[in-house]
Write a structure and sequence with these properties.
2 copies of one chain form a homodimer.
Chain A lengths: L17 H9 L10 E2 L10 H18 L1 E3 L3 H10 L2 E3 L2 E3 L4 H6 L5 E4 L8 E4 L2 E4 L7 E4 L3 E4 L2 H13 L18 H15 L11 H15 L1 H6 L4 E6 L4 E2 L1 H12 L3 E9 L8 H22 L5 E4 L1 E5 L6 E2 L3 H17 L3 E2 L12 H16 L4 E2 L5 E2 L4 E3 H18 L6 H4 L1 H7 L9 H10 L11 H6 L5 H15 L7 H16 L7
Helix pairs in contact in A: 2-10, 5-6, 6-7, 6-19, 7-9, 10-11, 11-12, 12-13, 13-18
Chain lengths: 518, 518
């Protein structure tokens, strides 16, 4: 089943934001955002048909025999009973075939609208949407070192994401603004995404009430009618692996699904701790969990958008530390993509994962391993695609721009290989002949500007120039780019009336409750 | 056609080295080398059948219409004429179908023997052999900075390669020993590979005479009979792209092919300079060049082992600098693999390519992009798989061990996914159940030691420990590993008689000619 709004986002004419916003926009500075990646290359499929069938059969067995726990959520248990599951205490055992049948009403792709219609994204199919890091309590940069994140840091990351050409999405909790009370943070975070950027964003999931606030703020931004008919948020619903669905996350899911807003249903797995140490065992549990979660979203509202999520990392059995960019995580990322496609669901996985404490070689090897596998595994929504450091404890400014730059390679790779007459270049080969060179030939002159992807951060200078200029490493080059981008930043235009209404909403909400840091 | 020696290398009982060497070996310290990678995962195939057919047809057209130049090599021209080509001056035009027909006698895989039979490698098929960086005139490490390479550096790299578990091959010119006369370097380099390591190695290609010396030294090391019947060297024959075969490289190829020794026939291409700026145009030229080169090796001796080589990088059109780890290079690496498999030839490409001046994040992103694409493109022989820096001008000690460690991820990835009962882990999922954890369960206890690949260089420590220990980045951690490995090094045993003969050979050769630094 496909969302009716699955026409190319680029072709849409926006209803969100209204005429005033569009007029204001024309007078503002804008930063280029590349279209969503559409793959013209095949996916890598590492798992055989036989292995996939084993996993699918075992996942059904897990759901029927072991079941899943819906904790502190009597209404959910009631819904499951009505849907045909066997409920025993908080344990929900789902007869074989039932979860998959319930999942079948979820759309295979959907459009998440941005307030700037040109930046709406299609999630699913051959598309890949890139979103920044999510969740770190710390930030780090070369100057300030590692420290607790603040709202000011949050604003900076939203600005950087807005200005990053290869990033399609503003994300959600790009870092935790720890200087704002826990029960009010979501208001400031949403305000930042709505006003400092015009890219699509995520809603709050830390409490059903905050999910409801997210919806209400979107009703101000997009108009209540628009939000009723369209998906304007994609939010991250983590499963408490193994096989446990807690009342907070499920409460948020219930709000979003009921409002036809998208949820990423995502097991959060450190292999060996929250799942078996084997790839097939982990994939079995992932599939069982995702099927139960997506099925539940469809019980709430058939047809509401849900994404097959997989966050998996391995563990260093010496230290117990989670490890990233490893071959085991790559295999799980790849196999989960195959499973997601067989279910006809959009797929979320991979990201700029690394365990390193610095944006150094370790960080980059681990990150590149994960980004490449994400592209080749058919990921449709890549959260954490830039800025992740130290196992997700830290959002790193320099790594953010380094990763965001690398995302350009995914765009170029996915474009595949053209084979028209110009691409064949036979005239160039004739013109140059044995022993010649191509720099000056007509074909090169006609094509060189678009022929090769080029980093905007890396050093391509001769050694001597590089040395004279201070022999800067990637971190130093990236720090300079962060400073430049933040100094160039200008906000996208927004109808002042809408902005005033959002500000009033946030002020009222904040005034309505005491601060809480719990 | 397949080399008769294509039985698994691990099963062979060695004739090379003799009984004395084997006895000596038992008393020596040995370092573990992982078996050659055998892929249990599918290759990524980015190019469509249609695009491949266009490239193949165009390459035949290039050979017939434009042809290739064999420079300063009248004997080669005579051979081509006899084989059916149209020779006009130094231009060799090859009628459609002829080059491919000549190539068909080259084996699809072959065994390159090491003096330690357990380290012989199969090149071709589903196998991947990893060899270190080749050719840099400079070396670099954190302590000494960037400097001209010496024989002492060369020795250190051979030792590091010998001790690297994931590296199968000792390589060739791991760096240029610039303190040794050009006309005598090859003797010292071969001596180092033969005595400091027991892994397979490459021969000299800088002059046909030096290729002959390489053969003669192998006759001492392996025995003349053994060398007559077996392939004991794989050497790098670069094509002078576009479409030019110079007399030095062809002279070396002639020596090696005549002795049934393997050659990598490899276009050396900076896209936009030595080939068209488009992927399909470059692949067309690569295929034409490789077909001409491999065909020539088969004219010299039908059945001699030849590898389809592809060294391709893109160019930064702003600065003219070659750039590495780019999507365009990835596509060419991938497409050339498809073309090589369609010819039934072993394939060489990819490596630890980067343009960075330091082993920093840039170096690692670029390298990881290339290593991953190499694995997924069906590469059979990966030269430069570790240690490459600054566009190949520098062999870097820290990057060598960082890359060599990352090669472990390729091993694990290629192993694919097991789906037997143990891998399914259903008992573990039952045992743990919703809300439990896997760390202590029976399945984890039985499998954790082999479940996850683990870096031997990266930092996996908690932040506080890492900070107390000096907050070291990857470069610093790698520098410590280099020092440790070199201090632990012990040479593999070698029959003292053979060693003495090699020393005498080298001394005689050196005495027979004046030093030349040209």
């Amino acid at each position: 089943m496909t969302d009716a709004a699955a026409t190319p986002a680029r072709g849409r004419r926006g209803r969100g934001g209204g005429g005033a916003a569009r007029r204001a926009e024309r007078s503002a500075v804008s930063f280029e955002t590349a279209p969503t990646i559409t793959r013209n290359i095949p996916n890598l499929e590492m798992l055989s048909e036989r292995t996939l069938e084993i996993i699918e059969a075992n996942a059904e067995q897990v759901l029927e025999e072991i079941g899943v726990a819906f904790v502190d959520n009597p209404a959910a248990l009631e819904r499951w009973k009505e849907a045909g599951a066997n409920v025993d205490g908080e344990r929900v055992r789902i007869p074989k075939g039932l979860a998959r049948k319930l999942c079948s009403t979820a759309p295979s792709q959907f459009t998440q609208h941005a307030r700037n219609p040109a930046k709406s994204v299609i999630v699913g199919g051959d598309n890949l949407v890139l979103a920044p890091v999510y969740g770190p309590p710390f930030v780090r940069d070369a100057d300030g070192g590692r420290r607790y994140a603040t709202l000011d840091d949050f604003h900076k990351f939203v600005k950087l994401a807005y200005m990053s050409k290869w990033l399609h999405h503003s994300g959600g909790t790009v870092c935790e603004p720890t200087d704002v009370p826990v029960n009010k943070r979501h208001l400031d975070m949403l305000m930042a995404h709505m006003t400092l950027s015009d890219k699509p964003f995520m809603g709050s999931v830390t409490d059903p009430v905050r999910a409801q606030d997210s919806i209400e703020m979107c009703e101000i931004l997009f108009g209540a009618d628009f939000v009723r008919d369209n998906t304007v948020m994609t939010s991250l619903i983590n499963i408490n692996s193994p096989l446990t669905f807690d009342e907070t996350m499920m409460g948020a899911l219930e709000v979003y699904a009921a409002h036809n807003q998208a949820s990423i249903i995502s097991p959060f797995i450190v292999g060996g701790a929250m799942a078996p140490v084997s790839v097939v065992g982990t994939l079995t549990q992932v599939l069982a969990e995702v099927m139960a979660g997506v099925a539940y979203s469809q019980i709430i509202r058939p047809g509401s958008p849900a994404i097959f999520g997989t966050f998996v990392t391995s563990i260093d059995m010496n230290s117990g530390a989670p490890t990233f960019g490893t071959p085991e995580a790559a295999k799980i990322t790849n196999g989960a993509g195959q499973l997601a496609r067989r279910m006809g669901l959009p797929y979320r996985s991979a990201g700029s994962f690394c365990g390193s404490k610095l944006p150094d070689a370790q960080a980059a090897y681990e990150t590149a391993n994960s980004l490449n596998m994400g592209l080749l595994s058919g990921v449709n929504f890549m959260l954490h695609s830039c800025g992740w450091l130290e196992g997700g404890l830290v959002a790193d400014f320099e790594k953010f721009v380094l990763d965001a730059d690398q995302l350009g390679t995914l765009h170029s790779m996915a474009a595949g290989v053209e084979d028209d007459e110009n691409a064949q270049a036979m005239d160039a080969i004739r013109e140059v002949g044995p022993g010649g060179h191509y720099l000056g030939c007509a074909h090169t002159q006609a094509n060189f500007k678009t022929a090769f992807w080029r980093s905007e951060v890396f050093d391509y200078k001769p050694f001597e120039t590089w040395e004279e200029e201070g022999a800067r490493d990637s971190q130093a080059l990236a720090a300079a780019r962060v400073a430049k981008l933040l100094s160039d930043y200008q906000p996208p235009a927004l109808d002042p009336e809408i902005k005033a209404k959002l500000e009033a909403y946030v002020a009222d909400k904040k005034a309505s409750m005491p601060d809480s840091f719990m």
